[in-house]
């Protein structure tokens, strides 16, 4: 069971995209908590702000987007860090090592001109360099005991280079070594070798046959399911505490999708990660999640555990999503209308133009996200009267 220790907190998060057509109010006051060890599902229609919210949680909002308000607090071993106030160099050390992301489209996430194994190894070399050098020093020391002839002094020189890296990683001697081609090769060769061993081991854990051969393949040589496994391997390569999966099975057939979902559940258990799973598929939410956050038009409208969401949904939008699930012998009900244009979103509750229970005040005031039952929050005037004070922008 997931703990009640908060791994990440999002407070009153607002994201704007400054475009030629106008200011897109993409995220409007999101409050969210992520607990250690849980799988939190974020569900909603396309355009509801799921991906942008999680990009903001990594301080990685693409231009012309900008976080204009709010905080993202990440707890590193009990020490809270405000990611939205950190400089880029500091937060890059957290991305990949502490927080990682499985991107929505593997073909876009993988560089077509580099071998897939090298792309996975890059993250390991950046974030686990010291660990790889320690392994290299140990393996070189063992190899020196076994070899004879001219190879022995070469290995001794390589071990000296690796030792200098471990002893004084910022020394002037190391900077000189990196400028001399032969010595530079002695620096990189053991590092890349150990990273390759680690990547091949990880590819094996992901169920990829013949990892040694696949390492040297290019993205176009792999199927969609294999490409997705490579993207997952990259995300898991540094054993992150928080793994964000952005609709990782959208373009896969149902058989491969089932394999990927089972694989992610197994890896979450093996690696002990916290999983944030983004999808528009309520069936996947039921399969994967411990808790669910329902998003609509840049705001969270309901948060509860997965059983409560399916058995006792409170928000009309959540009910609409559940009624839209195709089931044998049941009439399929679509939610009328479409997600609004976020340059000029509706006043008040953004769902009120599509809501069958809309009242007059729904068009004037924004409902606050309130805990109406234990661990069950909803932003709807059908269940409380608390108003969120809107700000002029």
Tell me what the structure shows:
The protein has an 8-stranded mixed sheet with strand order 6-7-8-3-9-10-13-12, sandwiched between helices. It has a 4-stranded antiparallel sheet with strand order 2-1-4-5, with helices on one face. Strands 11-14 form a two-stranded antiparallel ribbon. The chain contains 14 helices and 14 strands. It has 393 residues and is α/β, with parallel strands linked by helices. The radius of gyration is 25 Å and the shape is elongated. The chain has helices at residues 50-57, 88-94, 106-109, 116-127, 129-146, 151-167, 172-177, 181-205, 211-215, 224-236, 254-271, 282-288, 306-311, 316-323, and strands at 6-18, 23-35, 39-43, 65-76, 79-82, 99-102, 242-246, 274-279, 291-296, 299-305, 366-367, 370-373, 376-378, 387-388.
Chart the SSEs and their pairings:
Layout: E1 6-18, E2 23-35, E3 39-43, H1 50-57, E4 65-76, E5 79-82, H2 88-94, E6 99-102, H3 106-109, H4 116-127, H5 129-146, H6 151-167, H7 172-177, H8 181-205, H9 211-215, H10 224-236, E7 242-246, H11 254-271, E8 274-279, H12 282-288, E9 291-296, E10 299-305, H13 306-311, H14 316-323, E11 366-367, E12 370-373, E13 376-378, E14 387-388
Parallel strand pairs: 3-8, 3-9, 6-7, 7-8
Antiparallel strand pairs: 1-2, 1-4, 4-5, 9-10, 10-13, 11-14, 12-13
Helix pairs in contact: 4-8, 4-10, 5-6, 5-8, 6-8, 10-11
């Amino acid at each position: 069971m997931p703990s009640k220790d908060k791994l990440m907190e999002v407070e009153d998060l607002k994201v704007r995209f400054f475009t030629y057509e106008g200011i897109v109010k993409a995220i409007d006051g999101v409050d969210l908590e992520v607990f250690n060890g849980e799988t939190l599902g974020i569900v909603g229609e396309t355009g509801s702000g799921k991906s942008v919210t999680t990009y903001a949680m990594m301080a990685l909002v693409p231009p012309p987007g900008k976080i204009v308000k709010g905080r993202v607090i990440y707890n590193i071993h009990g020490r809270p860090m405000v990611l939205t106030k950190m400089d880029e160099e500091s937060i890059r050390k957290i991305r990949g090592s502490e927080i990682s992301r499985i991107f929505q489209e593997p073909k876009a996430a993988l560089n077509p001109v580099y071998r897939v194994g090298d792309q996975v190894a890059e993250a390991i070399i950046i974030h686990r360099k010291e660990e790889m050098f320690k392994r290299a020093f140990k393996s070189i020391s063992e190899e020196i005991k076994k070899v004879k002839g001219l190879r022995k002094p070469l290995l001794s020189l390589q071990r000296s280079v690796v030792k200098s890296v471990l002893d004084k990683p910022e020394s002037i001697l190391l900077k000189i070594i990196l400028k001399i081609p032969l010595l530079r090769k002695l620096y990189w060769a053991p590092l890349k070798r150990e990273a390759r061993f680690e990547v091949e081991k990880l590819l094996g854990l992901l169920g990829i046959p013949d990892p040694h051969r696949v390492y040297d393949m290019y993205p176009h040589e792999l199927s969609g399911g294999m490409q997705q496994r490579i993207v997952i391997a990259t995300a898991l390569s540094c054993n992150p505490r928080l793994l964000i999966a952005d609709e990782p099975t959208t373009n896969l057939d149902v058989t491969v999708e089932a394999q990927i979902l089972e694989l992610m559940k197994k890896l979450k258990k093996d690696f002990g990660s916290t999983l944030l799973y983004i999808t528009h598929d309520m069936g996947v939410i039921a399969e994967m999640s411990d808790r669910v956050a329902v998003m609509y038009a840049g705001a969270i409208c309901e948060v509860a555990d997965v059983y409560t969401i399916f058995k006792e949904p409170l928000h009309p939008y959540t009910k609409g999503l559940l009624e839209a699930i195709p089931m044998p012998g049941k009439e399929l009900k679509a939610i009328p209308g479409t997600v609004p244009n976020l340059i000029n979103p509706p006043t008040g509750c953004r769902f009120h133009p599509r809501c069958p229970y809309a009242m007059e005040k729904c068009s004037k005031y924004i409902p606050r996200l309130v805990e109406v039952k234990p661990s069950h929050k909803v932003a709807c005037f059908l269940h409380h009267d608390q108003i969120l004070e809107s700000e002029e922008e």
